Give the backbone structure.
Amino acid sequence: MSATLQTPPQGHETARTMTGAEIVLQALKDQGVEVIFGYPGGAVLPLYDALFQQNAIRHILVRHEQAAVHAAEGYARSTGKVGVVLVTSGPGATNAVTGLVDALMDSIPVICLTGQVPTHLIGNDAFQEADTTGITRPATKHNYLVKDIRKLASTVHEAFYVSKNGRPGPVVIDLPKDILIGKGPYTEAPQTPHRSYRPQTEPDARAIRDAVALLKGAKRPIVYAGGGVINAGPEASRLLGEFVRMTGMPCTNTLMGLGAYPSTDPQFLGMLGMHGTYEANLAMHGCDVMLNIGARFDDRVTGRLNAFSPGSKKIHADIDPSSINKNVKVDVAVVGDAGRVLAAMIEAWKQDGQQQDRGALAGWWRQIDEWRGKSCLHYVQEGSIIKPQHAVKRLYEITREMGRDTFITTEVGQHQMWAAQYFGFEQPNRWMTSGGLGTMGYGLPAAMGVQIAHPDALVIDIAGEASILMNIQEMGTLAQYRLPVKVFILNNEYMGMVRQWQELLHGSRYSESYSAALPDFVKLAESFHARGIRVTRAEDLDAGIREMLAHPGPVIADIAVAKDENCFPMIPSGAAHNEMILAPGQTGGVAGVTDEGKVLV
Amino acid sequence: MPDPTDTSYRNATIAVLVENEAGILARVVGLFSGRGYNIESLTVAPVDENRRLSRITIVTSGTDMVIEQIKAQLDRLVPVHKVSDLTLEGPHLAREMMLIKVVGKGENRMEALRLADAFRARVVDATTESLVFEMTGAGDKLDAFIDLMRPIGLKEVSRTGVVAIARGAGGLLA
């Protein structure tokens, strides 16, 4: 770092001297930042003053700091860029923590600038002081407290490097007010490699050869692709498609990976895991070689670990070596960027002289087609009561008819799973959901961030009536910036997933899971200058969806759905993939939830 | 390749070379507490002439799979330069230092001095009724000396925790 201070970058006679606030904004501009999501306060007033005096960076004023981080996440996930947040000290920073952990769990690149009391007051319990670096240390990929203005510019540049390289994640830069006001040198991003953080992106050639040899010899292979493929950029998704098609293998996606492989492709088995499809989970259970690319054997995916895909050889490609052999022991470990890994595998596949057992593969597909024959996502829509599955399915079909570029965000719960099951994605970066942390209140602010990045696209938050209330204040942000986000509420008057678990695991004692005293969502929308629509009968559903989509501004569509509908298929906690519960009326029956399963979440 | 069915615990002495910056120790300790790993001993001090690098020595225990996980988690901390499992990577030396205070008079005092001599502990402070010994060695040697001092008049112990280094010409940043 000191080297960059001593030798000013070319094109600048000397290091320019600026205020700390100007240095921060200059560094953001140099990093290509166009928009930041934030909320002002005492400690960051110098930054807001500098923002006021420039036009290069747009500031989106949110209504709560948690929403600022989710908006930045939505922005980042839908563009592949780093999302940037600006909040004040103390409560500004603590409010942001949920969003930071959310971004950490889902590997979303976010920079969060937090104000801090002046350096001489740190540790004195000053007004709006919090130990932000202490609080956010386990909530971020990395964090910084800048105590020397000479290191300010290089810290901001380094934060971007850390956030987007390797496994992406949130980075906090804590900025004491005196640093923002003081004057110091501006330096450009260093061209030299980072001193210590140099994640491996290029896969080891031998590991690739081993992986290809295993897959070539497979009789029942499967590709299990996750969010790492999305994070590696659209080219990685294209390569995934190329690899899967050239090898003839079935492909399943995790919740975070939806869109990495086109949902309408015949080789796609749907999502796997707790609420994944019957065919995806049974194929995972019965495969002989599994290629995990950019997924992390999450407990929602594996079910009971000692019964997870018991007969298979496992290949795990991940950019984060700590994800490999963490939950599941694998036979071939490939460390690298998903795109580079896929490119190398395609090349190695062509080079490898071994012939695939096409006959065995055809038999495997016959088995998969038999599982598909269960039609595990089948439901019966009859009468006036709207099935939530039907509402999502119609939303999907109608948006497809319209042909607009469509981005979906969700909150967390049953509606999220129905969205994952019934809304299909053909491309990456179109699906934004809180997977790892499971943050209710994620969807509306995330949709805001997506709409800012894609002003002409259709952005829909598929929500539940309970989740949406967790960040409902952001309707104000939609109004202020005229963001035409559509909020599509599946309103069953319950915290549906809580209710479902209480029904299955706790003797139908619906403790505190009823959504009492709900607002009138139509009036609520109107009070925030948006359109409100309520649909209560199945025969009005399509018209309601079309009205929502036709309205040029923000809309809340409150869809009253069946109150007792459960999310199926389901692998109960503590069960294995081949012990799925199917919907009532489908063969398979209800597997018992074990006592061990009950302690799991 | 670690075997997940192998539930036997092993000890590991891990050397970590880190940027000497504010909060680095909290990061390492927080990683251990947050993920439920054991720390049996932890030492840290700057080790290069510019005081830019610190070396942390951690003694931990777990199954092979857990220890592999600990190393991978340490390695992905941004300020970490190098993680080395000294227990796995060939022969190494591990030493600890302690200061131990023994209180007593007469025969007990003589016995303490005789044992200290046998253990090559140095007397670094003495009053008419107390002795402080300085002693360096492997942990079990220190343990043995403490056990011997207990009936004689053990008052207080201060130990550094383990520092370790690989034998031979190789270094952490080889």
Remarks:
- The CA atoms of residues 410 and 462 of chain A lie 5 Å apart.
- The domain at 2-186 of chain A is CATH 3.40.50.970 (Rossmann fold).
- The mean pLDDT of chain A is 95.
- The interface with chain B takes residues 133-134, 137-138, 141-143, 145, 162, 166-167, 195-197, 199, 320-322, 324-326, 328-329, 331 of chain A (CB under 8 Å).
